């Protein structure tokens, strides 16, 4: 056995995981689950902190993800348990009526001033992350809202469920463990609660969920995270989890959430994507992500657009980024930006300019990658070198302009490229999470060994490694 094998996180074998989950569910809840549903995490080649500005993102759905075994209840309660040892606190009971009441939605019971009379239920405070259970409760809440517009997704009043959850993703590893939880729970709720689920039992649901319905479900999962959990997600994670494709990179235009699926087989013939989980946990709800986003939004408002993507033409070039930055400088008062310059909405002008530059150059990199992966005539080795170069340029932008990187990620990017990776970058929201590297297949072990060594030498937590295989989207496991 290779010495680094223990640090490699396997996606496992879905049917075996499902069988184990079913057995545990029966022990926990005293009955069999109606099914098991899965949703993948993601790795994003490029397009961080731009989904909420209408930019393009290039994510892949992973083979790693979250599994939910579930059975319905008729009392409006959610009883949840996770098998993750770090998060498990036994069965947690939540009430969807209580979520309605505190989120102040348009649901029945929310406006009549009556507190839901339920015991053994968490106190719910909107906008405060009080744990992973919120993501699940929020998902059911958002599906119920969606069902008000789409009859086949109606959730009957009083619907509840027992859920047992396990994941092959590192929780907080910047690989969208939150979205995988939302999307797997979403499929379980669609299957158990809605007319669509009733009409399409078992694996028939996969085909019944066409791309349009999946786009609606992704938007609902995003709503759960924004409105119930209170984290500023922009829809990238939920979209690829529900709409990815095996063997493909998703090219997601966040202006209207249209997707193209670009084959990755040419790029991955001689190369592989490797995710390196720094094990510095990343949590979107802690405010730093929102702070960076607020800087870029202040720049956006000063520039008079509704989203930063509108500052660039359809097919942007580097000169278009320069022109937008020059416009910013003009409006911000020209010289002196680096010092204690005039603020935007009370924010640092220099910091807002850096966030703007990150967003614009990141959007440009996404368009370049989209062209390469669409097959603009480059032969695979040249394309891989170019993709690697763009990855590393993206990291510099995450570090210097978005300012969401951290020492372990910087060291791992440098080490991976030094050990033969064609490029590497921090992915996800930042402040923790994972680095993605593009590695020649015959250098994968060398990169893993070098990454493990540098962390040991520099006193960082030992990293873990995930082989990134572009995989199928959220689905019924059976
Ligand atoms: C998190 C958010 C996404 C996106 C990324 C950064 O994962 O949930 O919507 O903004 O950060 O690109």
Describe this structure in words.
With 478 residues, the chain is α+β, with helices and mostly antiparallel strands. 42% of the residues lie in helices and 17% in strands. It contains 14 helices and 13 strands. The chain has helices spanning 14-29, 96-103, 133-147, 177-193, 195-199, 204-208, 211-229, 236-243, 288-303, 318-332, 349-375, 380-400, 407-418, 444-458, and strands at residues 35-44, 56-57, 59-73, 77-82, 92-95, 160-167, 248-253, 258-263, 271-277, 423-426, 434-440, 464-468, 475-476. A six-stranded mixed beta sheet has the order 5-4-6-3-1-13, sandwiched between helices. It has a four-stranded antiparallel beta sheet with strand order 10-11-9-12. Helix 9 packs across helix 11 (349-375) and helix 11 (349-375) packs antiparallel against helix 12. The radius of gyration is 22 Å and the shape is globular. It starts with 13 loop residues before the first helix and ends with a strand. The structure holds alpha-D-galactopyranose.
Structural class: alpha+beta
Could you name the ranges where pLDDT drops below 50 across 5 or more consecutive residues? Answer: 106-129
Ligands, ions, cofactors: alpha-D-galactopyranose
Distance between the termini: 33 Å
Amount of helix: 40-55%
Order of helices and strands: HEEEEEHHEHHHHHEEEHHHHHEEHEE
Using the CA coordinates, give the radius of gyration: 22 Å
Largest sheet: 6 strands, mixed
Number of helices: 14
How many beta-strand segments?
13
State which percent range the strand residues make up.
15-25%
Strand line-up across the major sheet: 5-4-6-3-1-13
* Global geometry: globular
- Average pLDDT, rounded to a whole number, is 91
């Amino acid at each position: 056995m290779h010495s680094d094998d223990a640090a490699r996180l396997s996606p496992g074998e879905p049917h075996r995981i499902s069988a184990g989950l079913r057995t545990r569910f029966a022990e926990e809840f005293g009955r069999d689950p109606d099914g098991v549903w899965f949703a993948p995490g993601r790795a994003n080649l490029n397009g961080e902190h731009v989904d909420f500005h209408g930019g393009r993102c290039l994510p892949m759905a992973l083979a790693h993800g979250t599994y939910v075994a579930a059975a319905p209840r008729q009392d409006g309660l959610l009883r949840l348990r996770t098998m993750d040892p770090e998060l498990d606190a036994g069965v947690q009971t939540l009430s969807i009526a209580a979520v309605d009441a505190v989120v102040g939605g348009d649901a029945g019971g929310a406006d009549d001033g009556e507190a839901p009379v339920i015991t053994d239920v968490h106190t719910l405070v909107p906008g405060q992350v009080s744990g992973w259970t919120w993501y699940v409760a929020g998902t059911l809440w958002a599906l119920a809202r969606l069902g008000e517009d789409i009859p086949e997704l109606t959730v009957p009043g009083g619907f509840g469920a027992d859920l047992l959850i396990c994941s092959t993703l590192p929780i907080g590893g910047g690989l969208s463990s939150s979205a995988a939880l939302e999307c797997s729970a979403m499929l379980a709720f669609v299957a158990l609660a809605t007319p669509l689920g009733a009409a399409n039992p078992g694996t028939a649901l996969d085909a019944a969920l066409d791309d349009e319905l999946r786009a609606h479900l992704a938007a609902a999962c995003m709503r759960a995270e924004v409105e119930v959990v209170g984290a500023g997600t922009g829809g990238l994670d939920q979209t690829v989890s529900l709409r990815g494709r095996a063997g493909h990179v998703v090219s997601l235009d966040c202006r209207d959430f249209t997707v193209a699926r670009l084959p990755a087989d040419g790029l991955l013939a001689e190369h592989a994507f490797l995710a390196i989980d720094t094990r510095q946990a990343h949590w979107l709800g802690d405010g730093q992500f929102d702070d960076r986003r607020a800087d870029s939004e202040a720049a956006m408002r000063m520039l008079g657009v509704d989203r930063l993507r509108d500052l660039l033409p359809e097919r942007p070039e580097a000169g278009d980024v320069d022109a937008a930055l020059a416009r910013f400088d003009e409006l911000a008062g020209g010289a002196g930006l680096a010092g204690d310059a005039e603020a935007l909405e009370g924010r640092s002008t220099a910091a807002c300019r850096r966030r703007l530059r990150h967003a614009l150059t990141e959007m440009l990199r996404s368009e370049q990658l989209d062209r390469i992966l669409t097959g603009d005539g480059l032969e695979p080795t040249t394309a891989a070198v170019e993709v690697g170069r763009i990855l590393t340029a993206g990291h510099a932008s995450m570090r210097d302009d978005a300012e969401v990187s951290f020492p372990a990620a910087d060291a791992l990017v440098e080490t991976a490229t030094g050990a033969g990776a064609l490029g590497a970058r921090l992915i996800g929201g930042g402040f923790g999470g994972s680095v993605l590297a593009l590695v020649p297949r015959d250098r994968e072990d060398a990169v893993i060994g070098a990454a493990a060594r540098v962390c040991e030498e520099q006193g960082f937590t030992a990293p873990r490694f995930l082989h990134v295989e572009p995989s199928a989207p959220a689905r019924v496991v059976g």
